[in-house]
Inverse folding.
């Protein structure tokens, strides 16, 4: 693999990098690693072309679109310049404090190191003098008036250079860490070798002692032999009488002597062999000791190299900081570049056209100049002719021919003068034409500049993020709440924000360094009548993803809000300020210097208002100062006084809109927690002046209706006797209770739910949970709109939670994520083609927990694998699945994770081949959409939103392009079996069909764009009806 490095390094840049790593024995050190850092002058740019070759890369790093993680540099890696042929001595520049190139030698290699080499291929020395830092700085600079052209050197090049410098610093840090580790390893080996040396020295001393003992024994034997010879001589000199005895004695002594000599000879021979072996071993030990001493000296050299490496790392860090400061300085003008590029492009096109005209006029002028030069030549000829004429006049009297010649010359002179006069006229006309062309060019250029200036001052600004405009909007609303500006001025300023007005952008940028009073004055000078480009929508909800998310409600509030914002509408969110929110996901969170008083339980309570942006949307957080600490409970729902908590919040939210002087077109409330907004708005706040809005209510699940004793409704200020009636808020199943969801259906202008099929189901006695009659009575304003998903957050091509990103056109990454998750969860990886079924859900009866349990065992029977992620708020269900999890704790094919894990959920979507959703009822469901987005084919029951988004591959009533999964109708084990078996059969026996099905699912558009368009149409129709009714009423009066 080869990768191109940056074409140039700034300031003290590297001439080259070279990493060598050779395999050798553990204790062998070769002089082949050389680190040399050559630094250029501080104002030079050095172009270079580098290649990096790495071996032994894993397959996932070679895949297109996946950048391999940085490899650890072995201790034998070095950094060095090019060879002498590639880099002349003149290009090497000394450090500021020395005249010698800084060189660091670091040599160590191991058997398992990976060879890594970064070679500088060539250096273009001819460009050393042509590129300088001031030139780059000048190229990056932009004229404040917008009249200068952009340089060819782009900001991306500078960023790439800085990233390369950062990469080099990282490589040096890694080399330093690895060298330290190797140093510790060498020191430990040094200690062990020192111990072995001590043992060998002891053995050597023992061998010397044994040699000495053997030598003494040999001397003793030689003495005994001398004594024996003397005794033999004495026996020979004795008489014959004792001759026989002597011979007998001599024979005996001879036998004993021979025995002793044989014994001594064998002992001496063995000792000699042992001494020889000890000497050989001693010589080898001395050689080893000498080698160890040389290795210890190399270790000392390594310590010195580490010190020099540390100095180089510090120097590189300082260079990196200098580059970062330059980048920060250059980024100040980045915001201008995007707008100037478009303007300069158009302006440059017009300038090119004008340049053509200029070139044409210049050619004409050149032609006129050439004609003028010809006329000057003619003048010279005329002068010569006049001289000749004067000479001819001297001979006029003497010759008639001369006179005739003179007359002829006079005629020629007249002709020349006429031609000269015509030529002067032509030159003058050409000059006038050229002057007019220059004037026309200058006028056109000035008009273009003026047009560009007007367009820049009056046109909308599209290059600023939504967070920027939300921040300005929150500042304006804060001033309005704090009574620093009037409600009318706040309205006008909001309209300018809606239009992305450049003036308010410039005013905000100019006020960054001013105090608040000066900023308010600056903004007030901008107020003028403006037309709103879209609707003003306020969502009042109990959840918002990702800061306060329990279920799908939070995803809908954020997803729908962002989609409407992209369509040009002003969207704001009002939430309770929970103590358990994810505050790190809120940007620019601050408290306003104002309190909002709201009525509850016969008293006025103060509420602190906080503002911030979430996912680019402006959000208001209400913090009640109530002794019961309504939203400081450590959880969102599930408290004994939830009815009071959220009725208090609903009234406080409307009070905030009233006191802030807001005039929204739509107030959109969600589920029973904010269903109180509808009756509160019409009964209490519309008469107070908050009467511009139409109310839209969305019920995400009719299972939860929040009914309570009728007397509890009085706490928020609503009249119980007025509302506890069958046609208003009285619960349809208990006359002494009130139903907030029913009240919202009755008092709202638009009522929606989260899928068309679910809208039909809840109008039946079985699905309506007691509200079917109310919904049928108000059916004209009731509609189901299928939810969408955030396709930016759920995108396998950019998902940072995945090991490998992938797309519909490149499914190899999905297989790699499947293998990685199997290893992570401890599942068997013996069969790559074994199907994996995923399930991510809350374990509640609605989700079909008994069918999920059956699917686990049935998947195992059919030879598949199953992964479940989720938990249950119902204790006996949680205990049941904990037992199943313990049963399969160490199983090769089943794994249950009974909690919610955000990162693991992304992993399961990407790794699973199939995704099961066997819900008893499902208002909408998002998991099937997310699963298809990640290429996991859904197996779902035909109910609610599942019926509107999953269509069976064999359903002939559905067009082929919409068939995307496997469905079953009856909520029983037979239905699950049929769908699972059908899916397994196609997966195992028709790989090509399955691949096409996965690609089809991944290409389906489940974004919020289509759903937001339907809500936009509902909003617009409701607002139009209200305005028409108001106009009719005004004409009648």
């Amino acid at each position: 693999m080869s990768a191109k490095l940056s074409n140039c390094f700034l300031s003290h840049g590297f001439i080259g990098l070279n990493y060598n790593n050779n395999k050798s024995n553990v204790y062998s050190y070769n002089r082949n690693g050389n680190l040399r850092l050559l630094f250029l002058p501080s104002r030079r740019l050095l172009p270079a072309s580098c290649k990096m070759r790495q071996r032994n890369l894993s397959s996932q790093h070679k895949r297109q679109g996946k950048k391999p993680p940085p490899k650890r540099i072995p201790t034998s890696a070095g950094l060095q310049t090019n060879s002498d042929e590639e880099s002349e001595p003149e290009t090497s520049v000394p450090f500021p404090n020395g005249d010698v190139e800084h060189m660091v030698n670091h040599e160590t290699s191991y058997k398992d190191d990976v060879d890594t080499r970064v070679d500088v291929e060539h250096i273009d020395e001819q460009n050393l003098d042509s590129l300088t830092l001031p030139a780059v700085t000048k190229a990056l600079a932009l004229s404040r008036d917008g009249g200068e052209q952009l340089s060819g050197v782009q900001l991306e090049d500078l960023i790439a250079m800085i990233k390369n410098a950062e990469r080099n610093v990282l490589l040096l840090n890694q080399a330093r860490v690895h060298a330290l580790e190797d140093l510790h390893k060498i020191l430990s080996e040094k200690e062990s070798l020192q111990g072995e040396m001590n043992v060998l020295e002891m053995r050597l001393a023992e061998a010397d002692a044994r040699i000495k003992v053997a030598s003494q024994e040999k001397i003793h034997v030689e003495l005994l032999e001398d004594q024996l010879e003397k005794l033999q001589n004495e026996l020979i000199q004795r008489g014959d009488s004792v001759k026989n005895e002597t011979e007998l004695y001599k024979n005996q002594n001879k036998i004993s002597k021979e025995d002793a000599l044989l014994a001594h000879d064998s002992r001496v021979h063995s000792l000699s062999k042992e001494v020889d072996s000890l000497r050989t071993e001693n010589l080898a030990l001395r050689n080893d000791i000498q080698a160890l001493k040389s290795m210890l000296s190399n270790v000392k050299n390594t310590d010195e190299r580490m010190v020099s490496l540390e100095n180089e790392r510090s120097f590189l860090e300082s260079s990196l900081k200098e580059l970062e400061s330059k980048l920060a300085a250059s980024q100040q003008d980045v915001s201008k570049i995007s707008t100037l590029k478009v303007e300069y492009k158009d302006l440059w096109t017009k300038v090119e056209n004008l340049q053509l005209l200029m070139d044409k006029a210049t050619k004409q002028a050149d032609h006129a100049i050439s004609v003028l030069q010809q006329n000057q030549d003619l003048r010279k000829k005329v002068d010569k002719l006049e001289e000749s004429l004067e000479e001819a006049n001297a001979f006029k009297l003497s010759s008639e021919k001369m006179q005739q010649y003179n007359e002829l010359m006079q005629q020629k002179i007249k002709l020349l003068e006429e031609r000269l006069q015509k030529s002067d006229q032509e030159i003058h006309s050409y000059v006038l034409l050229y002057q007019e062309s220059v004037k026309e060019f200058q006028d056109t250029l000035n008009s273009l500049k003026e047009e560009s200036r007007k367009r820049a001052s009056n046109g909308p600004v599209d290059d600023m993020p939504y967070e920027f405009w939300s921040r300005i909007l929150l500042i304006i609303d804060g001033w309005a709440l704090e009574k620093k500006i009037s409600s009318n001025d706040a309205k006008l300023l909001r309209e300018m924000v809606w239009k992305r007005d450049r003036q308010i952008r410039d005013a905000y940028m100019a006020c960054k360094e001013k105090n608040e009073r000066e900023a308010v004055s600056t903004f007030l000078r901008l107020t003028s009548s403006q037309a709103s480009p879209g609707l003003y929508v306020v969502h009042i909800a109990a959840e918002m993803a990702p800061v306060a998310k329990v279920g799908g409600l939070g995803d809908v509030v954020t997803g729908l809000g962002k989609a409407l914002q992209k369509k040009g509408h002003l969207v704001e969110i009002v939430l309770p300020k929970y103590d358990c929110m994810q505050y790190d996901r809120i940007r620019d969170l601050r408290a306003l210097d104002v309190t909002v008083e709201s009525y509850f339980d016969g008293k006025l309570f103060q509420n602190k208002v906080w503002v911030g942006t979430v996912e680019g949307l402006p959000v208001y957080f209400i913090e009640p100062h109530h002794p019961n600490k309504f939203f400081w409970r450590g959880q969102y729902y599930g408290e004994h006084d939830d009815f009071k908590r959220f009725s208090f919040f609903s009234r406080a939210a409307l009070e905030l809109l009233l006191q802030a002087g807001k005039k929204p077109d739509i107030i959109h409330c969600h589920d029973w927690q904010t269903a109180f907004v509808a009756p509160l708005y019409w009964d209490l706040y519309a008469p107070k002046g908050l009467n511009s809005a139409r109310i839209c209510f969305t019920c995400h699940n009719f299972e939860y209706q929040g009914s309570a004793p009728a007397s509890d409704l009085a706490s928020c200020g609503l009249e119980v006797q007025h509302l506890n009636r069958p046609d208003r808020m009285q619960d349809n199943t208990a006359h002494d209770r009130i139903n907030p969801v029913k009240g919202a259906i009755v008092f709202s202008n638009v009522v929606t739910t989260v899928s068309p099929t679910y809208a039909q189901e809840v109008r039946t006695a079985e699905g309506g949970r007691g509200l079917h009659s109310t919904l049928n009575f108000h059916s004209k304003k009731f509609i189901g709109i299928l939810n969408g998903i955030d396709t930016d957050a759920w995108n396998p091509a950019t998902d940072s939670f995945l090991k490998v990103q992938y797309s519909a056109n490149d499914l190899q990454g999905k297989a790699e994520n499947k293998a990685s998750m199997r290893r992570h969860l401890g599942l068997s990886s013996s069969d790559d083609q074994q199907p994996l079924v995923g399930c991510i859900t809350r374990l509640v009866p609605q989700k079909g927990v008994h069918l999920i349990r059956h699917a686990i065992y049935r998947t195992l029977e059919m030879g598949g694998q199953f992964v479940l992620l989720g938990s249950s708020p119902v204790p006996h269900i949680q205990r049941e699945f904990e037992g199943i999890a313990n049963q399969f704790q160490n199983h090769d094919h089943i794994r249950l994770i009974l909690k919610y894990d955000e990162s693991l959920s992304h992993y399961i979507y990407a790794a699973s081949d199939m995704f099961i959703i066997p819900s008893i009822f499902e208002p909408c469901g998002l998991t099937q959409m997310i699963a298809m987005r990640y290429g996991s084919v859904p197996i779902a029951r035909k109910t609610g939103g599942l019926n509107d988004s999953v269509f069976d591959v064999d359903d002939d009533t559905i067009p082929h392009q919409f068939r995307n999964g496997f469905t079953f109708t009856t909520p029983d084990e037979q239905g699950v079996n049929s769908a699972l078996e059908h899916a397994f059969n196609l997966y195992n026996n028709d790989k090509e069909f399955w691949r096409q099905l996965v690609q089809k699912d991944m290409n389906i558009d489940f974004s919020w764009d289509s759903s937001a368009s339907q809500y936009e149409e509902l909003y617009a129709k409701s607002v139009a009806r209200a305005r028409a009714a108001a106009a009719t009423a005004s004409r009648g009066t």
Observations:
- Residues 1-152, 528-532 have pLDDT under 50 and may be disordered.
- The domain at 536-784 is CATH 3.40.50.2000 (Rossmann fold).
- The longest strand covers residues 587-600.
- The CA atoms of residues 838 and 867 lie 5 Å apart.
